[in-house]
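Assess this one:
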Amino acid sequence: MTDQTTLPPRRRLGAFAAIGFGAVLAIAAPLEAEARGAPESFADLAEQLLPAVVNIASTQAVSESMTGDPQLDEFFKEFFERNQPEGPRRETSLGSGFVVDPDGFIVTNNHVIQGADEVTVRLHDGTELMAEVIGFDDKTDLALLKVEPSAPLAYVSWGDSEAVRIGDWVLAIGNPFGLGGSVTAGIVSARQRDINAGPYDDFLQTDAAINRGNSGGPMFNMDGAVIGVNTAIFSPSGGSIGIGFAIPANQAKSVIDQLREFGFTRRGWIGVRIQSVDDELAEGRGLETPTGALVANVTPGGPAETAGIVAGDVILEFDDKKVRDMRALPRIVAETPIGKTVDVVVWRDNAREQVRLEVGELDEGPAELGEEPQVSEAPPEQGSIDLLGVSVASLTPEIREAFQIGEDIVGVVITEVDGAGPAAGKGLQPGDVIIDVDQKPVASPDDVLSRVEEARDNGHRVVTLFIQRLGDTSWVALRIDKS
């Protein structure tokens, strides 16, 4: 009978195997690990946690237009008025939540209460209380509710989601399909999942059964601390297939604390527009691996410009946190306290540099206008950059008008693209403006040609172009055509 707490050890392979006369080949031994068995029972933990998990029902009036077809809408309106004469048709949605303060503060998902006219919370003992929405954040799908209990409520505490490891046991409690207080168990299947739900995706993935109605419920570790807020599932059928996602506790706690203090979120901002670093951009920048966030543009007067960050820098670390890819940076910055001065490590000119930056506050209002640009009226210069497969020209009023290029843009415009060249392969097209080549500004076709030839003569296989197109900017890495 197999011991349930210790898996039987694997048989070791020999350290060496003889081949021919005296020759040996080293054979790596298989990795060995001892896995702890499943808990004998989750009953004690579930009994302790269940009283702090609540069911949430939200109701709202249904829009007059139900089908988009006026005739069908009229038919259904008459039908519902006959069967529900007391007023407009109302719709109820069900979800879950958990108490984080004995005075009645409750965490749930924004989509559980979004657009609701009334929100009702049912406690574990069956008590129903009307809830007030303190605040919500649609970008992370979190909301904070407040009820007025007659006595202090059972509550749970936040855990450290950064300490969670793939393979750790977790417990999920919620209200699937309106059944109430249901407990499921599983493991953490993956971390840092991006499911395109919002700009700050960093989900924990679990195989614990999560279904409709579990939204907003807690995911616990084996110490009974909340390490995630169950939010989404991947399911072709609508039921659990073992792929569920939870907002990490460290992210959720930051948002909930702000909702409790302000009623809304206040996010950090540094004033940069960024893009991903692919293999070719990494090579062109001299990075060993594609990592970090490449700065495509810097907001004039913003925290990044004040700190000395420039377009072309690759942000590798922010406030002692590694920026593994482009999507990681917005989340890290957003969670950083406004006004905090942080260290930022950037990759610039093939070396790491550190700058100090004071984090500003994100404002979605219109950006301030910059200074009036200086427009050159010199006749256009033209040239062919065969190494990239493009023809270019300097910017003149006539060319700006022809390609609809703003007067504030400084650079060299692409006028033709060789369909078989490197530029065409990366989607460059006439009207694109080359602003920098390998982080060096260009103002004429000769500037572009000399930068590309310099890169080729120094043995580089890739050049990076800073491109402006219809108000948008990005970095593009092109292989130098040496044929």
User: Anything to note?
Assistant: The first strand starts at residue 16 and ends at 19. The domain at 48-265 is CATH 2.40.10.120 (Thrombin, subunit H). The two ends are 68 Å apart (CA to CA). The longest helix spans residues 70-83.
